[in-house]
Amino acid sequence: MIILKIIGIMIVILVFLLMILIFTKLKIDCTYKFEPKEQWATIQIKALFGLFRYRIKIPSEKINRQKLQAGHEDKEMNGMVQETDNEDGLSSLAPIKQLLPHLQELYKILKSFLKKLQIIQFEWKSAIGTGDAASSAIACGAGWALKGNVIGVISHYFTLKVYPDMQITPVFNHIASQTYLRCMIQIRIGHAILAGMKLFKYWRQVSEAYADYKTMQTESKREDQSI
Asked: Which of 90, 152, 177, 195 could pair covalently with 113 via S-S, beta carbons 3.0-4.6 A apart?
């Protein structure tokens, strides 16, 4: 009897902790700063009312290295595409065509998840200068247009809880290019878990569809060989 009471108490405690975890808000604070001589980025994750903290800082050397690697990979991919003939290219698109119906489901899952992400702080400050007053003004106007489009996309896919703090400072007497971007996002852990479960289910469906496609392709080749 005592053992049953202990088990019951443990189950109640576990359910209580699970409910706290599901409704706990996870905050992600992303900061990026760019200057001609220095650039860095930080990502800080907070949960359980600040009891859990994790911080990642990406120095400028790592950012530059990643950009160089991305450029090198793009060149390699372009070379591979040029070497691939038309017949191989069309045959390689066949699996993608088979999986296209599943992409709509993936889009729905991602869109639903992104709407659960609440942006509670958004700060984007820049300084632009070309050394000439007229061209600096034009560059600032283009910068405002770019920021407006970015905010439009963010407000469409995310839940924007605050008015974005955006500034562009024109520099007329010398060349300048500086940007400071900070975005704080929060989401309930339960929503993240639910999205992960949906993505896992989607991945299984896509894997099964791809396996069926490979089976059909193998059987088709055997029939052609037998003929």
From this structure: 195
The count of other CB atoms within 10 Å of the CB of residue 5 is 9
Q: Which of 181, 189, 210, 206 is nearest to 31 (CA)?
A: 181
One DSSP character per residue, 112-127 reads HHHHH-EEEEEEEEEE
Provide the residue-wise pLDDT of the chain in tens; the chain has 227 residues. Answer: 677 777 777 887 887 777 777 778 889 999 999 888 888 899 998 887 777 888 888 876 665 566 556 555 555 555 554 554 444 444 555 556 666 666 777 888 888 888 889 999 999 999 998 888 888 899 999 999 999 999 999 999 999 999 999 999 998 888 888 999 999 999 888 888 888 888 888 888 777 776 766 676 676 666 666 65
What secondary structure letter does DSSP report for 219?
Answer: H
**Cα 152 to the center of its chain, rounded Å:** 17
Do 116 and 168 form a contact (C-beta atoms < 8 A)? no
